Amino acid sequence: MMSMSERGRFISFEGGEGSGKSTQIRLLAEKLEGRGVRTVVTREPGGSPGAEIVRHLVLSGVGKVLGASGEALLFAAARDDHVHNVIAPALGQGRWVLCDRFTDSTRVYQGKLGSADLKLIRAMERVTIGELAPDLTIILDVPAEVGLARAAKRRGQEAPDRFEAEDADFHRRLREAYRQVAIDEPERCVLVDATADVAVTAQRIWSVVGSRFTELHETQSLEEDGLEQKLETNGA
């Protein structure tokens, strides 16, 4: 088992509706746990009791009534509670935090598409997260039509939420906005083609994570050494 006495790693997942974030986060968490890495899976908006209340308000459509700037303020309030009560404590305990959406979602949904002042959004980030930022952001990329079809299949007879209900043009622009985030911040963000099946996409993500964090290779070496010792013992 790898030692994680120091600060844990923070990985955020971004992408349009139906891009498969929740599924891929779960699979990555299982893979990491199998390597002895303690993980925390969380989401935004939400992830903490106070933030989950805000999530209900936002997805019910209240945020849209307030406009992009008002909605961004709701997200900031939720993020402040989430960071201080879940993310920062987990990282301090050496856990790896896998988060379904983080600051990029606010920048894209309320900023680039909603026309909220990006200076306002950045100012709120300084207050809510300070220097905290993901070590890696995985942006799952699928065509808007593919993502919307997946989202519709997932929710079945339930009504679409606040964001799923936007028109196709909104979702096309959403995809392009996320692709631009990956271009603008290549050191932090990696764009992953998520049009393939779940297993293929999961392997692509694992390749990205493995290439980014060298401590995972150390864990692999420990596992292989342990297996070799076990085989030698059994063969003796």
Structural class: alpha/beta
- Residue ranges: pLDDT <50 for 5 or more in a row? 1-5, 221-231
What is the count of helical runs? 9
Overall mean pLDDT: 89
Query: Topology as H/E string?
Result: EHEHHEHHEHHEHH
CATH homology superfamily? P-loop containing nucleotide triphosphate hydrolases
Distance between the termini: 25 Å
The percentage of residues in β strands lies in 5-15%
Structure, briefly:
By secondary structure, this protein is an alpha/beta fold.
Can you describe this structure?
With 236 residues, the protein is α/β, with parallel strands linked by helices. It has a single domain, classed as Rossmann fold, CATH 3.40.50. 60% of the residues lie in helices and 11% in strands. It has nine helices and five strands; from the N terminus they run βαβααβααβααβαα. The longest helix is centred in the first third of the chain and has 31 residues.
